[in-house]
Specification:
3 domains; alpha/beta; Rossmann fold; 10 strands; 49% helix; 3-stranded antiparallel sheet; 467 residues; 5-stranded parallel sheet
């Protein structure tokens, strides 16, 4: 074979964006893959909308010919669990040095744009950027009528001396940007998660490069509390990735499209095969590896394109060296966010004293008190506040779809897309009407995901029609 017509494509351990290749299969919609997308919200493994188009696997070296057809693929890294016999203090020192090195290399002397939340991943980055003396423009957003997450982010920014902007995401912003979002993520993720689209035009004036905190919560925490059997590991993965209402819609589409066998068996078989290929005995490390190989690149990474449309993006937790580091650290040090918590407490105690959103109203020093009776007063007051808002006609907003699907104007826009001619070419109006009716009359939480997926498929079909 003439080597001049071959290309070598190397993918990161956790790819930021997909690299597509062609395979020798019919050019037709991959309906089995679309059913999995419907159930879990992302495409699994190398699947795409098309049978003759695949995503190159993570951590692989791939040879493609001049026509983009994959000729050979082999891994250069496999997730493993090889814990070293080291003290926690040594692991913390190694993490500190590695984290600082990665961030320093990634952002250089550029002005950093830092999205801040009330959690730990971006807080850990904020501390590192402060230690490194970087110039930072931070921002945060929350839902109008929801928990004021921006208050926590504002405190972190003030403590670190960063510029800060707060945004409050209002109802129905999706419809002004849904066509643009469909182009950006190519409909490989549903449209109710990337709330950054509501402020995308603000990014231009903020700085030079994003530093994003995605995937820290998976790398630096336990996945399960004990060692599991193979069947239990499979059930944990199924439970983690299948979204409410997703299995029901996927099963309905599987039957309508007259695919072989039944969907649930097919999904279990696919996931079991992927799990069996991961040569890790420790259940927590094995499940983390599965999520990092299949969930991170095919779901978490998809909407990173919203950021990269505006500015270059960097992700310290995605760095190959961070993945390799995680494989060598004992699970007990990763569990319960120990490394990140101790890093923040050591490097910036004042930031550690700011409320941790998932453990509110407690912080990194006293979050273990988030149990009865210590949190009883807060829980009572918080419930009373939410109930009072509901009585006043101001429901407590917790989920992005509530801003996009509820209310008369949202209803009008949503129905226009769901019952358009484009979707009918893939999904019968009977199924679309059935799941929309269930969303409206039975259980909005249960059926918000099927409605969101149907909306995504409608935009995909509209996109294909225009090509």
């Amino acid at each position: 074979m003439n080597n001049t017509v071959l290309r070598l494509l190397k993918t990161p351990i956790i790819p930021i964006k997909p690299t597509f290749s062609k395979v020798k299969k019919p050019h037709e919609l991959n309906k089995e893959a679309i059913c999995i997308f419907t159930a879990i919200g992302f495409f699994l493994d190398q699947d795409t909308y098309w049978k003759d188009k695949e995503v190159l696997p993570p951590a692989s070296e791939n040879v493609v010919d001049k026509n983009g057809i994959l000729q050979e693929s082999k891994p250069y890294f496999k997730w493993h669990y090889s814990p070293r016999d080291i003290l926690f203090e040594q692991a913390l020192e190694e993490f500190t040095q590695l984290f600082h090195t990665i961030i320093k290399e990634q952002v250089g002397n550029k002005k950093v744009i830092l999205p801040l939340s009330g959690g730990l991943d971006s807080r850990t980055q904020a501390v590192a950027l402060k230690v490194l003396g970087k110039k930072v423009h931070s921002y945060s957003y929350d839902f109008k009528g929801g928990y004021p997450e921006t208050n926590i982010a504002k405190q972190i920014a003030k403590t670190c001396g960063f510029e800060f902007q707060e945004f409050h995401i209002g109802r129905g912003y999706l419809w002004n940007s849904i066509e643009e979002l469909a182009k950006i993520n190519d409909c490989y993720s549903d449209f109710t998660h990337p709330r950054q689209m509501a402020i995308v035009d603000e990014f231009d004036a903020m700085g030079d490069v994003f530093s994003l905190g995605h995937w820290g919560d998976v790398l630096f925490d336990k996945m399960v509390d004990r060692q599991l059997s193979s069947e239990e590991e499979l059930q944990v993965i199924i439970k983690k990735i299948v979204v409410k209402g997703g299995m029901e819609l996927a099963t309905a589409l599987w039957k309508e499209w007259e695919l072989e066998g039944d969907f649930e068996t097919y999904l279990h078989h696919r996931i079991k095969n992927l799990l069996d290929k991961i040569e890790i005995k420790n259940s927590s490390a094995k499940i983390r590896a599965f999520k990092s190989m299949y969930w991170a690149p095919r779901w978490t990474s998809v909407n990173l394109a919203v950021f990269s449309e505006k500015k270059p993006i960097t992700l310290p937790y995605y760095d190959n060296r961070m993945c390799e580091f995680i494989c060598s650290i004992p699970e007990e040090y990763l569990a319960d966010r120990k490394l990140q918590i101790e890093y923040i407490k050591q490097q910036n105690p004042e930031v550690a004293r700011i409320t941790w959103q998932s453990e509110k109203p407690f912080n990194l020093y006293n979050f273990k008190n988030n149990k009865s009776p210590y949190n009883l007063l807060y829980r009572v007051l918080n419930k009373l506040q939410r109930e009072t808002k509901a009585i006043l006609g101001k429901p407590y907003i917790q989920r992005n779809w509530e801003l996009q699907f509820l209310g008369d104007e949202n209803k009008k826009q949503l129905e226009w897309y769901l019952f358009s001619d484009g979707l009918k070419e893939l999904v019968s109006e009977e199924i679309a009407q059935d799941f929309y009716r269930k969303f409206e009359t039975q259980d909005q939480v249960q059926y918000s995901h099927p409605v969101s997926i149907l909306l995504t498929l409608a935009l995909k079909m509209k996109q294909l029609k225009s090509e």
